[in-house]
Design goal:
The chain has about 180 residues and is mainly beta. The chain contains no helices and 16 strands. A hairpin with a 5-residue loop joins strand 6 and strand 7.
Length: about 180
């Protein structure tokens, strides 16, 4: 992965660790760190030097997504093994595994606004799940009629929107 100067187009930094490519990358809010994810792991890099700070070893196969929690104290990863993991963003230690029930292709997950809940869904499954991000408790499971393309909370997080391959958009009550 390369970081480029937006004014000149010249490369600033080259980050290289993954031989099979990087599936995604994101900055933390002060741009001091970069989070990348790919096959079996997520990596946290120093955003200035390019040094690897730590590697979050997930599984030997695809890590579909990774993201900072809203407070940037935790990192969420979702793998092809139907596991959403929560990691300590300072040490790289695994805090929790959240088990996704159903098929795993394209497992996605996202934090809610305060980082207390995680929403998970898969492209090849009908289940949408909400977990407590502090203790891992499964709070709610919703079943869409077809394979899912996306899921998201509304602004006040009282409802969850899902849409899928079946052409339907559904709105669900979020757990209290």
């Amino acid at each position: 992965m390369r970081l480029w100067n937006a004014d000149t187009g010249a490369p600033i930094l080259l980050l290289r660790l993954e031989e099979r490519g990087i599936m995604g990358a994101t900055w933390n809010s002060d741009e001091s760190q970069v989070l990348t994810w790919s096959y079996g792991r997520a990596t946290v890099w120093d955003g200035k030097t390019g040094d690897v700070l730590f590697i979050l070893e997930h599984s030997p196969i695809t890590t579909w997504v990774a993201s900072w929690s809203p407070a940037e104290d935790r990192i969420l990863t979702a793998s092809q093994e139907r596991i959403v993991s929560i990691w300590d963003a300072k040490t790289g230690s695994k805090l929790l595994d959240l088990n996704y029930i159903g098929r795993d292709e394209g497992l996605q997950a996202t934090w809610n606004k305060d980082g207390k809940r995680v929403l998970g869904w898969s492209f090849t499954n009908k289940a949408v799940m909400v977990w407590d991000a502090d203790n891992g408790d499964l709070l709610q499971t919703m079943n869409h009629d077809g394979n899912l393309w996306s899921a998201s909370w509304n602004a006040d997080e009282s409802r969850i929107l899902t849409c899928g391959r079946d052409g339907l958009i559904k709105i669900w009550q979020s757990p209290a």
